[in-house]
Amino acid sequence: MELAGRTALVTGGSNGIGEQLARQLADRGAHLVLAARRTDRLAALKADIGRAHPDLTVTVIGVDLAAADAALALADQVTEAGIVIDLLVNNAGVGSHDQFVDEDRNALARQIQLNVGSLVALTSQFLPGMISRHAGGVINVASTAAFQPVPTMAVYGATKAFVLSFTEALWGETRGTGVRVLTLCPGATETAFFDTTGKSILTSSRHPPAGCKGRPARLRRRGTDRGVRAEQPTQRHRLPLRAPRVDGAAVRPSGQRSLLNLRPTWTRPDLSPKPRILYTVLHRPH
C-alpha cells in the first residue's frame, strides 16, 4: 500500500506503540489524524513530526474513546473537516490486572467500550468509504493475549480475542476489494499501558516501543504493500498457558522477519485462502 499523500487516522497516538506507528507513517509520507485523550502529548508529537516533515498535515483531536458515542463523534469531526481516511489504525486500548470478582465494574465497562466498542464503531464508519474507493487499509491492534485465556486479565484478554476474530472476519469480507486488513498483536511493550495494569506485570519480558537504544523499529514494505504474514512470537514471549494454534494448524519455526522488521518469529503453514495475521512485539534485535 502506497502511503505517500494518503491520510492515516491513529487512535491512541500520543505515546507508546501508537506514537511509533504515527512517526513511521509520517516517514512514509502519510498525512496524519492523531486521536487520544492527552492533547498536550499530541501537540508535542505534531510539532515534532512537523519539524521532520514540514510538507505533511497533522491534525490532532482530543477524545476519550472509552466514552459511549465518542467514536462516532470523532468520525463526525473528521468528516466535517473534509478529511478522507485511507488508513485506519485502531491502536487505543487499555487493560487491568486483578481477579475478575475484584475488578471495578465501571472500569471494565470503559475497557470494553475502548477496546471493542470504539474499534468496531470507527471501522464501521471508515471501512465503507475505503471499499467504495477500492483502496485503503485497517490495522487493528490486538495482543498476544488474544490467543489464550489470561487469568487476572480476563476481560482484557477477551477483548483482544474479539479484536483478532473480528479482524479475521473482515479480512475475509474485504478480499478482492482493494482494502488491506491486518491485526497487530504485540507482546509486552514498555508503554503507559502498564500505568493501568500495574508495574509488577511481565516486568522481565517488556520491550521498548521504539526498539533498542532508541532506534525505532521500522515498518516493512513487504507487510503493508504485499500482504500479511502469519507469525507468532518466540517461545519467550508466549504467556505460560498453552501453545497457541491458528486455524487448527500447529506452528513451526521460521527465520522470516515480521512486518515491523523484528526478531525471527514463528509462522504457521500457508493455509490460503485462510486469513493470515501478524502478531509479534515492537522490538529490534540487538
Question: How would you characterize the overall build of this protein?
Answer:
This protein is of the alpha/beta class. The protein has one domain (7-267): Rossmann fold (3-Layer(aba) Sandwich). Helices cover 34% and strands 13% of the residues. It contains seven helices and nine strands. The chain has helices at 16-27, 39-52, 70-80, 105-133, 154-173, 193-197, 221-225, and strands spanning 7-11, 31-36, 58-62, 87-90, 136-141, 179-184, 231-232, 252-253, 266-267. The protein has a six-stranded parallel sheet, sandwiched between helices. A three-stranded antiparallel sheet has the order 7-9-8, with no helix packed on it. Helix 3 (70-80) runs parallel beside helix 4 (105-133) and helix 4 packs parallel to helix 5. The longest helix has 29 residues, at 105-133. It is globular and about 50 Å long. Residues 211-286 have low confidence and may be disordered.
Number of strands: 9
Distance between the termini: 29 Å
Overall mean pLDDT stands at: 76
Number of helix segments? Answer: 7
Domain module count: 1
CATH topology: Rossmann fold
Helix/strand-derived category reads alpha/beta
Largest sheet, strands/sense/barrel: 6 strands, parallel
Give the CATH superfamily.
Answer: NAD(P)-binding Rossmann-like Domain
Strand content: 5-15%
Provide keyphrases for this structure.
single chain; alpha/beta; globular
